[in-house]
């Protein structure tokens, strides 16, 4: 155990001793961290949970079919499930083909009756909810895949300057004045992390080891132009190899990207001790032009692109920020996808429990008809009375009636009240019978 502890301590000491020591080592480290974050692989399954398995189980369809009225089941089409002749025929054939290990049908049409009438709506609702959940889950799964695809493209553009690139294009390199400073569209600072790494790690005589032990060359000085683009591009290969040795994680994540962006922001202007726009220079000593003639000019100056001091105007910074947002968006939907899987399983379980109740036999609901109360006075009943003393409630006498044969007529208010009382009395009689 003690030996293992000493070994770990020794390895840590060796690793610490191997930290870059050149004048631009801090700049290389920051760009390297960003490059490793941008080129780390995205594992889609970390965000989608794997292939989309949230689909409506066949059981829910078959159980719904067993709850249909026999007359509807026997039709050539089903308005509820499949209104095509071939489709409905195929579904019924598939239902009949489902057998258990004793070759008995798993799904059988339940007998018509009050039990089926009571439970069929529940099976219909479960099936419809499952189909809706399936659609929702597919949309979520597609959105997650779209987000990871967008993140992957943004990360590639941050690393190499193009969403589909796997290496830095030589078109990004020209004379240092147009590559490591300024704002020329095709070669501007920040067009890619790989591009900027070459600017800080290759200069004139001071370039050797400027980014650390064995990291840095004297190739990219103030004499180089666009005609040397292929040579300049080739410098990145060695830098990439050194950089990848510093990677400490195996897959991309929003956290790793955010950490890299924070490290870069904190490194800008570090080791630069004077001059205008010092906070937008990545290099060392004086804030001079990045011509590559000596150590302090072996740098990259973002002043031309990060106008107003806004580093999010640096292309690769903006792209990494976008990638982090997309990966965070994808991660936020993983929980919903997992919940959908659980919910679909619950619906399947509930459907089987509901279908099991179809075997129960409920008593038939007695058919009752309401009969009119024994006494309910009508308008014609009142009209028969020709004398006021015979015109009793709910009728009323009117000497001024236009039709003299109908001086006794039904009082609508009293008539309604009496009818209501009659119905109430009938209900009381029914209770007594019970």
UniProtKB/TrEMBL annotation:
Residues 381-390, 425-434 have a biased composition (Basic and acidic residues). Residues 123-157, 320-347 form a coiled coil. Residues 367-434 are annotated as: Disordered. It holds the Pfam family VSG_B. Residues 367-377 have a biased composition (Low complexity). It is a lipid-anchor; GPI-anchor. It is found in: Cell membrane. Keywords: Cell membrane, Coiled coil, Glycoprotein, GPI-anchor, Lipoprotein, Membrane, Signal. One of its GO terms (cellular component) is side of membrane. Residues 8-345 form the Trypanosome variant surface glycoprotein B-type N-terminal domain. VSG forms a coat on the surface of the parasite. The trypanosome evades the immune response of the host by expressing a series of antigenically distinct VSGs from an estimated 1000 VSG genes. This is Variant surface glycoprotein 1125.1268. It comes from Trypanosoma brucei.
């Amino acid at each position: 155990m003690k030996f293992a502890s000493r070994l770990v301590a020794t390895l840590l000491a060796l690793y610490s001793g191997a930290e870059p020591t050149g004048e631009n080592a801090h700049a290389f480290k920051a760009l390297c961290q960003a490059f490793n974050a941008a080129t780390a692989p995205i594992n889609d399954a970390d965000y989608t949970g794997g292939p989309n398995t949230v689909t409506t189980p066949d059981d829910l369809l078959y159980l719904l079919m067993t709850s249909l009225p026999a007359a509807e089941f026997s039709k050539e089409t089903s308005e509820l499930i499949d209104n095509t002749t071939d489709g409905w025929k195929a579904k019924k054939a598939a239902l009949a083909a489902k057998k258990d290990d004793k070759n008995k049908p798993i799904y059988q049409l339940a007998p018509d009756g009050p039990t089926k009438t009571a439970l069929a709506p529940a099976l219909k609702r479960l099936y419809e909810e499952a189909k809706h959940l399936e659609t929702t889950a597919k949309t979520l799964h597609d959105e997650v895949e779209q987000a990871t695809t967008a993140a992957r493209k943004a990360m590639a553009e941050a690393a190499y300057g193009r969403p589909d690139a796997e290496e830095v294009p030589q078109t990004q390199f020209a004379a240092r004045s147009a590559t490591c400073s300024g704002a020329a569209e095709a070669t501007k600072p920040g067009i890619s992390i790989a591009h900027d790494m070459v600017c800080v790690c290759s200069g004139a005589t001071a370039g050797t080891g400027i980014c650390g032990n064995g990291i840095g060359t004297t190739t990219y000085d103030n004499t180089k132009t666009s005609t040397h683009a292929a040579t300049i591009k080739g410098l990145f290969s060695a830098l990439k190899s050194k950089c990848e040795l510093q990677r400490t994680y195996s897959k991309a994540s929003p956290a790793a990207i955010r950490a890299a962006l924070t490290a870069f922001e904190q490194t800008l202007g570090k080791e630069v001790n004077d001059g205008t726009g010092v906070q937008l220079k990545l290099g060392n000593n004086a804030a001079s032009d990045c011509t590559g003639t000596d150590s302090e000019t072996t740098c990259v100056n973002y002043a031309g692109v990060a106008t107003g001091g806004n580093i999010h105007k640096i292309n690769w910074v903006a792209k990494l920020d976008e990638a982090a947002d997309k990966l965070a968006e994808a991660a936020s939907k993983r929980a919903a996808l997992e919940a959908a899987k659980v919910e679909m399983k619950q619906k399947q379980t509930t459907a089987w429990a509901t279908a099991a109740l179809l075997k129960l036999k409920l008593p038939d609901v007695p058919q009752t008809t309401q009969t009119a109360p024994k006494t309910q006075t009508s308008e014609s009943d009142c009209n028969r009375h020709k004398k006021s003393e015979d015109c009793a409630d709910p009728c009323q006498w009117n000497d001024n009636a236009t039709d003299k044969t109908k001086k006794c007529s039904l009082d609508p208010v009293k008539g309604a009240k009496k009818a209501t009382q009659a119905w109430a009395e009938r209900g009381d009689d029914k209770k007594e019978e019970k």
